[in-house]
Design goal:
This protein has about 90 residues and is mostly helical. It is about 60% helix and about 5% strand. It has helices spanning about 5-15, 20-30, 35-45, 50-60, 70-80, 85-90; strands at about 5, 65. The protein has a two-stranded antiparallel sheet. Helix 2 packs across helix 4. The chain is globular and about 30 Å long. The termini are far apart.
Length: about 90
């Protein structure tokens, strides 16, 4: 499944509430139910942002991501970012 714009997301585009950065607003506008979560993140990156912009829209309830492999991929990607590579490696003893 693909992320969809919620009713709150549609209203946010019309009313401009809550306030969003231009980058977040652009990502919200292109969220059409046809793009994958990874594609939305790529849109954010193309605008100079990252997955945090997409996560913010999800946290606000403006985009809904059905539970599937895309959502799991985002969670795994976040976990990997928080743990430096050297800590993930096992010692050579």
């Amino acid at each position: 499944m693909r992320p969809i714009k919620t009713a709150a997301g549609q209203l946010a585009i019309k009313e401009r509430v809550p306030p969003l950065t231009p980058r977040q607003r652009s990502v919200l506008i292109v969220c059409d139910g046809h793009k994958t979560l990874a594609q939305l993140i790529e849109v954010a990156r193309g605008l100079g942002g990252d997955e945090a912009d997409v996560e913010h829209l999800i946290e606000l309830g403006l985009i809904e991501v059905p539970v599937d492999s895309d959502a799991e991929t985002l969670q795994v990607s976040r976990r990997r970012k928080k743990v430096p590579r050297l800590q993930r490696m096992s010692p050579l003893r």
